[in-house]
Amino acid sequence: MNIIPLSIPTPFYVGDVNVYLIKDDPLTLIDVGPKTPEAADALRSELARNGVQFSDVRRIVLTHAHEDHCGLAKLVRDEAKDAEVFIHEWETGHLFGRLAHEDHRRLMLLSGVPDAVFEDMRLLYEEVSLLTDSLDASDLQPLRDEMELEFESGSLRVPHTPGHTPGSCSFAREADRTLICGDCILKRITPNPILAPDPLHPSKRFHSLAEYLVSLARLRSLAPTLAYGGHGGPVTDFEEIFHRYVRAIDDRQKKVIALVPNGGITAYEVAQKLFPNALGHDVHRFLAISEAIAHLDYAESENKVGVEIANGVEVYRSN
Ligand SMILES: [Zn+2]
Ligand SMILES: [Zn+2]
Question: pTM of the prediction?
Fold first, then answer.
């Protein structure tokens, strides 16, 4: 089973996204890239270089529902005449432009984000969601933890690896311990645990950082010899990246806990102190707020800070 990484441009700060062509039967793409003319052209020509056309694709598998990874799924699917599209069910709630605005709004306001700031972010995300075409839920096949994607010459096992998003999945070729991990593993940066409603209890937040740490340990337990991430080159030294991530998360935990005073602070205020330059009008603001919330949730679950609700907003205090 030949795994071929293809680099596809995105309009995002993160740069190119990795798409993986699996040249086997059924011919499979893991992720597809954003819905921009540049990405569609690049995907077409990268596939052509490997002797493949959109119409040859039989199966599209999505690591998660971010626009830079899933945007072209419908275009490829339609040209490929009903190739199957697989994604974890926990991604479908906010997949393909169906972002649960009300749930997000409630979670943001609870974290002390002013309504005007949320509105501003919502407008920005409406633009971002244009980089994905809608597919109906009935067009999607569910990815499930531990299922196998069969190929003529082998199979990929699916560890469900939540954290970056609730339904993020990875793919393991056990014969040589090769992983494809989407945005769970990024060669140069630590992945963001993104704010999301809990898929099982949408009124609550998904505990993205705690979940991410479990997923990271699970991937490590597979002793990967090679890990292909969602952006950047392949990782050959998984132990190095594992320890680097754990150190970076630990450092940030300490920083966040130190920012919580006796007098109380909201997650939004922590985000402003943590990333004084990142709260302009772009996607970094959402990522910065997500990061602060994820770390406060984690610190609270570890009993390092306390939280209470005052006037509809969560206020954190040092323990
Ligand atoms: Zn992502
Ligand atoms: Zn990504």
Answer: 0.94
Q: Which has the minimum average pLDDT: 2-16, 158-172, 182-196, 249-263? A: 182-196
Which CATH number does 2-318 carry? 3.60.15.10
CA of 221 to the centre of ligand 2 (A): 23
Q: DSSP assignment of the chain, as one string?
A: -EEEEEEE--SSTT--EEEEEEESSS-EEE----SSHHHHHHHHHHHHHTT--GGG--EEE-S---HHHHTTHHHHHHHTTS-EEEEEGGGGGG-TT---HHHHHHHHHHTT--HHHHHHHHHHHHHHHTTS----GGGEEEE-TT-EEEETTEEEE--B--SSSTT-B-EEETTTTEEE-GGG--SSSPPP----B-SSSTTSB--HHHHHHHHHHHHHHT--SEEE-SSSSPBS-HHHHHHHHHHHHHHHHHHHHHH--TT-B-HHHHHHHH-TTS-SSSHHHHHHHHHHHHHHHHHHHTTSEEEEEETTEEEEEE-
Distance from residue 64's CA to the centre of ligand 1 (Å): 7
Residue 96: band (very low, low, confident or very high) from pLDDT cuts 50, 70, 90: very low
Ligand nearest to the CA of 66: 1
How far, in Å, is the centroid of ligand 2 from the Cα of 164?
9
Q: Tell me which ligand sits closest to the C-alpha of residue 68.
A: 2
Give the residue extent of every domain in the chain: 2-318
